[in-house]
Design a protein that fits this description.
The protein has 9 helices and 9 strands. It is α/β, with parallel strands linked by helices. It has 2 domains: 200 residues, Aminopeptidase (3-Layer(aba) Sandwich); 67 residues, no CATH class. The relative contact order is 0.13.
């Protein structure tokens, strides 16, 4: 029996998927799979805010704080620790607490974005995450590359084989119903163990996180038009002065996946793989 969790509400203002996951997949078992839905950040969901404001954090993004700390004065650190324990089936002391929650074998962390894209994010591709990807009709896959650089703290990093889904076009009036339909079709196919989307996908490895200095050089080298990259001239490449010891923000790819990925591949930040 495989135990899985579908997590929603890590960012509290992403609420279009909440009714579907809370009502239809709260606790469901079929065949070899048992799924449960988990609200990642209930307080932020209640406030309809991306994160819960707090004095300790300028940008209290729960999905940069895992595995968290139980004794922290920061709410997001404490919530990250609570959620990590719950998904691993352990208590605050790291002891298996099976009477409360069984540990999960994988997490599907669902997000929404205003960007004009859909994205699957993994943190180290293995057989389980490769299998999960085949249930979702999302073209681009980005691998956080497990600890390259300082861009870390994601929920999916805590449970190997997990994936995160980014559904775009939040401002589109059809977005709420479309995302619910697509997600329901995909989760049902997972429960039926009948993968629907076994096509080849562009797969990008990320080398870390983007420093402000490199971002500024990128901005300058592309004539201040990040959204419309054209092939870089040798002079522009030289202006970027990049090397693989400098980090890259995965979310930066997400804003403009095709053009940004092409440009970053040229300057050596990401590596497309089969």
């Amino acid at each position: 029996m495989l135990e899985g969790a579908i997590v929603y509400g890590i960012h509290g203002d992403e609420q279009n998927i909440r009714p579907l996951l809370h009502e239809k997949y709260n606790k469901v078992r079929k065949g070899n799979i048992r799924l449960r839905s988990v609200c990642g950040n209930p307080l932020a969901v209640e406030m309809n805010l991306r994160g819960v404001p707090e004095r300790e954090k300028f940008d209290p993004d729960l999905n940069r704080e895992f595995p968290g700390e139980h004794d922290s004065s920061s709410y997001v650190q404490r919530r990250a620790a609570e959620l990590t324990d719950r998904l691993k089936g352990q208590n605050a002391y790291g002891v298996q607490a099976g009477f409360a929650h069984d540990p999960v074998d994988f997490v599907i962390d669902v997000h929404e974005t205003y960007g004009n894209f859909d994205l699957i994010v993994v943190d180290g591709l293995n057989e389980r995450s490769k299998a999960l990807i085949q249930y979702f009709d999302i073209r681009h896959v980005v691998d956080l590359n497990r600890g390259k650089g300082d861009y870390h703290g994601f929920l999916i990093s805590e449970i190997p084989g997990s994936i995160a889904l980014e559904f775009g076009n939040m401002e589109d009036s059809d977005h709420p119903q479309q995302i619910r339909n697509r997600l329901q079709q995909s989760v049902d196919s997972l429960l039926n163990e009948n993968p629907q989307y076994m096509y080849a996908r562009p797969y990008y490895t990320v080398w870390g996180s983007l420093t402000r200095e490199i971002y500024d050089r990128m901005w300058s080298a592309t004539s201040h038009n990040i959204a419309n990259f054209t092939p870089l001239t040798p002079e522009q490449k030289q202006a970027l002065n990049v090397d693989r010891n400098t980090d890259l923000v995965p979310a930066f790819i997400g804003e403009y996946p095709d053009k940004v990925a092409q440009m970053l591949e040229m300057v050596g930040y990401i590596r497309p793989e089969s």
